[in-house]
Amino acid sequence: MSAVIESHGHDDHHHGPAKGLTRWLYTTNHKDIGSLYLWFSFAMFLIGGAMAMVIRAELFQPGMQIVEPEFYNQMLTLHGLIMVFGAVMPAFVGLANWLVPMMVGAPDMALPRMNNLSFWILPFAFFILLSSLFMEGGAPNFGWTFYAPLSTTYAPPSVTFFIFAVHIMGASSIMGSINVIVTIMNMRAPGMTLMKMPLFVWSWLITAYLLIAVMPVLAGAVTMMLMDIHFGTSFFNAAGGGDPVLFQHIFWFFGHPEVYIMILPAFGIASHIIETFSRKQLFGYASMVWAMASIAILSFVVWAHHMFTVGLPLAAELFFMWATMLIAVPTGVKVFNWVTTMFKGSISYETPMLFAIAFVVLFTIGGFSGLMLAITPADFQYHDTYFVVAHFHYVLVPGSIFSIMAAVYYWIPKWTGNMYDERLGKLHFWLSFIGVNVTFFPQHWIGLAGMPRRVPDYALQFADWNMISSVGAFLFGASQILFMYIVLKTVMGGKKATPQVWEGSRGLEWTVESPAPYHTFTTPPKVN
Amino acid sequence: MFKKATASIFTKYFAGMAFLFSGNTFAAWDDLNMTEGVTAISKEVFDLHMLIFWICVAIGLVVFSVMFYSMFAFTKKKNPNPSSFHENTKLELAWTIVPFLILVFMAIPASNTLTKIYDDTEGDINIQVVGYQWKWQYKYLEDDIDFFQNLTTDWDEIYNKTPKGEFYLEEVDEAVVIPVGKKIRFLITANDVIHSWWMPDFAIKQDAIPGFINTAWTVVDEPGIYRGKCTELCGKNHGFMPVVVKVVPQDEYDIWVQEKKEAAFRMAELTEKNWTTAELTERGEGVYLKNCVACHQVNGQGIQGIFPNLAGSDIVLNNKARNVEILMEGVQGAAMQSFANQLSEVDMAAVITYTRQAWGNAENGDGKIVIPKDIVEYNKPNI
Q1: Residue B48 is nearest to which of A340, A365, A375, comparing CB atoms?
Q2: Is B75 helix (H, G, I), strand (E, B) or coil?
Q3: In this complex, do B16 and A445 lie within 8 Å of one another by their Cβ atoms?
Q4: Considering only alpha carbons, which residue of chain A is nearest residue B85?
Q5: What are the residue ranges spanned by the domains of chain A?
Q6: Neighbouring C-alpha atoms within 13 Å toward the C-beta of A239
Q7: Beta carbons of A394 and A366 less than 8 angstroms apart
Q8: Fewer CB within 10 Å, N side or C side of chain A?
Q9: Is A512 in a helix, a strand, or coil?
């Protein structure tokens, strides 16, 4: 493998990518693979988004209008699975591929062929998952949390395909994480100590460890399901001596760290963008690193707050309530840091900054509702209502997804060599910002007022705000077509970008040409 | 229809906005906030909810004020030279310790309320609640009362063929009746998948888990009809299994108990009666529409690949014994549950007869009917 790196080292600037389809199939280049991940993630975002549109169209009015309840359940299940495993996670892996080697001054990822493999198995996983829509009995219909026994004894036959799809996604994530960890640990430029690494690199290092810790747990859960369905075991079947709640413990032991996997890289991105456009050093680098590490560690001891209503003993309920509330401390530290970084800065409002600020504000709102959900007695009222739907969409859409969009606007000049259209970028931001709030804010209210989640129809008192929520969703959905147009336009051409791109940007990736050459840092830079 | 919907959306949206800014927000506030409920616990939970909410609002105001101030005061134009300060141990300690203290302040009342909720001593009245796909069963353990609670909203209302009534999706054939002022303990479990029994006005939400019994309790002082829902995704008709509890004065409750016992006695008499095919078919249609249509559909054809077709099924046409057995035992590993404890002998016989007579099955098959005596004499197969 070292031979590969060396041979590239010699013909650095003479040797570009191969031509045609094989360039993408055989590529071991971190930039190509990063682009593949990002495009794949965007395609999944559109498919998962289309499913969200089906859901919101059905909920536009009370009564069943567009789909049957059975199909509605398939839509909400696939929407969740595709957005989590197909859109958000691959987008962050794509960003890691593009940025981590350039940020630490490495020529490529440490394990380039595994990098190729970890991407190219993903399309198969989602092909299998989506093909279940056309199978007898339909696609998985038990929610993205697939609680047994609804997902085992009572599941459609396609559940087996779902299980294998999850295995492939898990394998892909684990390989991706190993790659990130090995790259960061071994390939940093001389002088770049751990506490000098850019925060995005730190956030990904922590995320990668979380992934390696929990993806095998998910694999275990689906394997136990497979055994229950096909090989006569009773892990989750009470009639055979098993325990349906065991499934939930295993799932959420994976699931809670998983939600931080989807937000930690966003913390890194927001930190870079806010410091660049405030033209001021991040207020507390070290405390940001410690806050992320604390959040990651705490994420392993709070899983049962998703299960307050399953009948846990009082001691467990109290422990998980307190542990969950504790997460507010490091999260607060991060928000205070971002705000203090802006304080007395010299702020300009380009599109990435707009998305980053919206990220901080709306993620904080999602954090507040998260704190409310942590209060066990109140959670008895909130649990499994639209309040929860509003909460996790606030941390995932204007949280993770806004951070990904911010990252795309921020680094696309480096990727393509062209500036994006600032006017269109801002239009995209405002449409998305309005859309996201009109969609999800009223869901807090209908949830508190008593509308359960995962229902295809609802009582009449929830009608008005559901309709408004649907209108917001259509607006948000439509404005992502604009996003695609802006990105394509930037790839095609535009004002040429300088190497530094932004006045306040700092870091190794801004020292190379825009667009970044196919091979960067074949000789490591020196970091002071 | 879609056009009509888009036209009305603007009216709705402006109505919503008008509501936001109208002086009459207090009345409509109920539709946007958690219910206070009608029990001591539910009121405590509500207060806790509002306390945490206002604390979050206060923190939000402080943080966002600093942020918005910075956004306006320190733009590139107004402040071309950024300050370079960073890291301040005192400030960083403060914003770690102060939030921690606020959390402790929240955790104390929350832990107290939770401890009160966790009281699983026996109630004055103990009711076992069993979740089924997609209905609830209630067994009054002291009084030997046992009934099912089904949604009564017509499918025509759900499919927009007829106007929707006031309690659309929140109405049932039989409410759970409990007396005021008594401690009621619910023992909650499920027969098939996980359900969740939620009664917002009592602040009770407990998952109904097959093989396990969870408890919850309440004391209600205000008579009235209270409406709740299943809140755990439990399959196709998860959205269609409401909970209705009727709280009545003690004397009214005693009368209700008496009536339920008499009704059970009358049902036993019906079992002895000689039934004609027409009588059984007629009764069976009602049972079918209540218990079977969700899966097997009105036309008996089910949903391909998930719920079997009964119209022309070989078992329904020609195999009476197996037909009865499926209804009595359920089908292992499939959604078909045992109805032995859900239907009376009369209703069981009637519904099987109905399926053997309807949709041309009588003409195509052996046309054998099932009478209540067949069910009484049914022998459990040796497994």
Answers
A1: A375
A2: strand
A3: no
A4: A283
A5: 30-511
A6: 11
A7: yes
A8: C
A9: coil
Point out the residue among B114, B157, B306 whose CB comes nearest to the CB of A317. Answer: B114
Return the structure tokens found at A132: 């279940």
pLDDT digits (tens, 9 = 90+) for A489-508: 999 999 999 999 999 999 99
Q: At what angle do helices A328-342 and A314-326 cross, to 10 degrees?
A: 10
ipTM score assigned to the predicted complex? 0.91
**A332 and B211 in contact by Cβ < 8 A?**
no
How long, in residues, is chain B?
Answer: 383
Domains of chain B (ranges; CATH) run 19-117 (1.10.287.90), 125-266 (2.60.40.420), 273-376 (1.10.760.10)
User: Between A and B, how many residue pairs show a Cβ–Cβ distance under 8 A?
Assistant: 300
Residues whose CB is less than 8 angstroms from the CB of residue A14 and which lie 6 or more positions away in sequence, other chains included: none
Judging contacts by C-beta atoms under 8 Å, the chain A residues touching residue B13 are: 467-468, 471
**Could you state, in chain order, the average pLDDT of each consecutive group of 10 residues for chain B (383 residues)?**
48 50 50 91 95 96 96 93 90 94 96 92 92 94 90 92 93 95 95 95 96 95 95 95 96 94 82 84 89 87 85 86 88 81 86 90 84 81 58
Task: List B225's β-bridge partners, or say none.
Answer: B246
d(CA A522, CA B16): 60
CATH of A30-511, picked from 3.30.70.20, 3.40.50.740, 3.40.395.10, 1.20.210.10, is 1.20.210.10
What is the token pair recorded at A208? 């990668």
Which residues neighbour B34 within 8 Å (Cβ) at sequence distance 6 or greater? A378, A381, A382, A448, A449, B45, B46, B49, B200
B333 backbone φψ class: left, alpha, beta (φ>0; ψ -120 to 50): left
CA separation for the pair B205, B199 (Å, rounded) = 6
Give the C-alpha separation, B296 to B335, whole Å: 11
**Nearest by CB to A318, which of B103, B114, B239?**
B114
B224-268 pLDDT per residue, tens? 999 999 999 999 999 999 999 999 999 999 999 999 988 888 877
Q: Which is nearest to A208 in space by CA: A263, A269, A261, A272?
A: A261
CA distances from B219 to B117, B186, B254 (A): 12, 11, 17
Give catalytic residues of A, as residue numbers. Answer: 79, 108, 144, 172-173, 256, 258, 260, 271, 305-306, 331, 334, 453
pTM: 0.88
Question: What is the DSSP track for A141-179?
Answer: -STTTT-TTTTTTTS-TTHHHHHHHHHHHHHHHHHHHHH
Stretch (H or E) spanning B146: strand B145-149
Per the CB < 8 Å rule, is A368 touching B56? yes
Q: Does the beta carbon of A346 lie under 8 angstroms from any beta carbon of chain B?
A: yes
Per DSSP, the three-state class of B60 is helix
Contacts of A153 in chain B (CB under 8 A): 193, 333
